[in-house]
Amino acid sequence: MPAIDKLQLNELINQAIKDNAVAIYFNIGNYPVMKIQGTLKDLDDRPILTKEFLNIVSNTILPDEQKIVLQEKKELTIGYDWSDNVRLSVNFFYQKDSLSITIKLIPVLIKGLNELGLPSIVSSIVDLNSGLIIICGPVSAGRTTTAAAIIQNINQKHEKRVITIEEPIEYQFINKKSIVQQREIGRDVNSFIDGLTDVIDEDVDLVYLSKITKTEEMKLALQVAASGKLVIAIMDSDSAMVVLNRIYSSFKITEREWAKSLISGTLKIIINQRLVKKSGGGLISVSEIFTMNSSAKSIIKSGKFDQLKSVIQTSRQDGMQDLDSSLEVLVNKGLIKPEEAKRVMMNPESL
């Protein structure tokens, strides 16, 4: 990379670190853009981005074999060690026949569960020996940070063998009481399906999946959990109800009775989270929580999934909470503004 371009990239990333930005966006013909506390900021004091600059960035960061993958697939995400304090998740993709790059900044230091503002029931996951945990919500809702905090807490507290299957590896773990072995899609294993298949009969206590989207992945994740392992998986979804219906519908009609038993006996908790803007600046986490209590098990076994919403609303004693009620609590405490709550509410007119 020419010295001036390397200096420009260094300055941008160092400024992002200083400003506590979570991401930098590079699009040809525009200024670089940073995302800071949920707000996009144009860096109009920087040069307009050129095709040459973005090509130099990709050629510098990507090894030769991954350059070929990018050329073939037109999209690629990799993990990249930037400094002792920050790791990058770099997404390369094409739009309008031009390369664009998104750089996500990942702190090397993994936050503890008590620092994330999550409901207390999330801490109970650390002591589970088996079952399926789903963490969902939109992108940039802190899902990976939550998963990393849970894994790190287990790593510090229990003697377990942990296998992560990630695309890409974001947070990196150092063995404490546990052994944590991290596998990256495309480098260490070909796919999530292959990774899950590998661990079914292995001596593994915890499996972490950075993303599950395909029906076969959902079914395999349940089966791995049913085999006596703890599985933590991230899904793109905006509610616990959608997650439950997607998992159930991933099974063929002829498998539905088995699926009801498998889901009710294996799924432990769904954490559906958001990051919302605090009234005084900064971000705060808010969550919808579904836990598998006796009422939920009975409803799932009966196949009446539409009744689960009322179970979430009426089972606070079991740690459940619906998203809208959680947001109302934050509004009443003055922590967030009503308009911010309505932006992410499932039923905003209820506020």
Query: What would CATH call the homologous superfamily of the largest domain?
Result: P-loop containing nucleotide triphosphate hydrolases
- How would you spell out the order of helices and strands? HEEEHHEEEEHEEHEHEHHEEHHHH
Secondary-structure content class? alpha/beta
> What does the overall shape look like?
globular
The CATH topology of the largest domain comes to Rossmann fold
Number of domains: 2
The count of strands amounts to 13
Strands of the widest sheet, in order across it, are 9-8-10-11-7-12-13
Outline the low-pLDDT stretches. none
- Provide mean pLDDT, rounded: 94
Computed over alpha carbons, the radius of gyration is 21 Å
Separation, N- and C-terminal Cα atoms: 53 Å
Strand residue content: 25-35%
Q: Count the helices. How many?
A: 12
| Helix amount | 25-40%
Give a short account of the largest sheet.
7 strands, mixed
CATH architecture of the largest domain: 3-Layer(aba) Sandwich
CATH secondary-structure class of the largest domain: Alpha Beta
What does this structure look like?
36% of the residues lie in helices and 26% in strands. It is an alpha/beta fold. The protein folds into 2 domains: 3-107, Beta-Lactamase (2-Layer Sandwich); 113-350, 3-Layer(aba) Sandwich (Rossmann fold), CATH 3.40.50. The strands form 2 sheets. It has a 7-stranded mixed β-sheet, with helices on both faces. It has a 6-stranded antiparallel β-sheet with strand order 3-2-1-6-5-4. A hairpin with a 2-residue loop joins strand 5 (86-95) and strand 6. The longest helix is centred in the first third of the chain and has 16 residues, at 3-18. The radius of gyration is 21 Å and the shape is globular.
